[in-house]
Design brief:
With 310 residues, the chain is an alpha+beta fold. 35% of the residues lie in helices and 17% in strands. The chain has a seven-stranded mixed sheet.
Length: 310
């Protein structure tokens, strides 16, 4: 089992998986600062929220393609789940011995006639880190610092949710970037949380405050809910005052959290993108499925939809 990320402030070195940087983690880039109050120039450089949504989705699709291509060409891809057997080797005390064990595993995965030194070394990922990385790209393309919004979500991590809380990221995106939050429930009669969330427009019903791992301050992990998509399982009629899930079918980029953030995903136009923490480098790690299929297992949750003329 992997250890949690060491305590400390988020910085450039601790950013999510290798995404491009146009801004620093917590402040504007030197280029932005040099322009000072030249707002028109900044607006020309920054992507619109709509363009940022498409760029974030393109990033997610790109890393999936890189993983698949790496497996095809080399025998393994550039990512692995941080709870996989490959990751467990790296979490033991003797780092040098563990590194050699990992390299031995990679050599067994490597295609014949290839040398390990010529292939990118895989890096760990999980479902929450996928969310963080996509949100980094979303804010980066708009020349917005991303450290604060992700740092707060990471501060809410625990021994159970090791990287951070998806619900905190969604709530921050709602407040700072204008995301619209949807609570989805495949069948409200089987959803113990629905009535409370419906009544208060907020969830989860219990346990909404944790102690920050970095700040040591109380962190609220709850989400305010703007809209509902309920009773969309086949044969059911939508609950009055809610929408069918088809209302989200035109949204190209959204952040998702099932089971109040214990599993997270990217939502796009009726599809779900996931990262599987138990997959080794020679496995797909990422998966794209229809939301209809996904919601059979993860029957309720929160989706934060990026703003735009969808």
């Amino acid at each position: 089992m992997t250890t949690s990320r060491p305590a400390g402030p988020l910085n450039q070195e601790a950013r999510p998986i290798n995404v491009r940087d146009q801004t620093t983690a917590t402040a504007s880039s030197p280029l932005v600062r040099s322009l000072g109050a030249d707002i028109p120039a900044l607006r020309k450089m920054a992507a619109s929220p709509e363009d940022a949504a498409y760029q974030a989705l393109a990033f997610v699709e790109d890393i999936i393609e890189k993983q698949n291509l790496g497996i095809e060409l080399y025998g393994f891809g550039p990512y692995y789940g941080d709870e996989s057997s490959f990751a467990v080797v790296n979490s033991e005390p003797r780092q040098e011995r563990n590194r050699k064990s990992q390299e031995a595993m990679l050599k067994r995965m490597l295609k014949p006639a290839l040398k390990l030194e010529s292939v990118p070394y895989p890096q760990p990922i999980n479902c929450v880190e996928l969310l963080f990385a996509a949100m980094t790209v979303y804010r980066d393309s708009q020349l917005k610092p991303w450290g604060g919004i992700i740092g707060k979500a990471r501060d809410a991590r625990s021994s159970v949710v090791r990287s951070g809380r998806g619900t905190v990221l969604i709530e921050q995106a709602r407040r700072e970037d204008g995301f619209t939050t949807w609570y989805y429930s495949r069948n409200v009669s089987e959803d113990a949380d629905f009535e409370s969330v419906w009544k208060h427009r907020y969830g989860p019903p219990h346990g909404t405050v944790v102690r920050g791992t970095d700040s040591h301050k109380l962190v609220n992990v709850g989400v305010h809910i703007d809209k509902f998509a309920a009773n969309f399982a086949p044969g059911l009629h939508p609950k009055p005052g809610t929408s069918g899930i088809s209302a989200l079918n035109t949204v190209p980029f959204a952040l998702g959290a099932a089971d109040w953030g214990y599993h997270t995903f990217i939502f796009s136009c009726g599809s779900v993108y996931e990262a599987h923490w138990a997959d080794k480098p020679n496995q797909k790690v990422f998966e794209k499925t229809s939301f209809a299929e996904f919601s059979k297992s993860w029957t309720s949750g929160v989706i934060g939809a990026a703003p735009g003329q969808w």
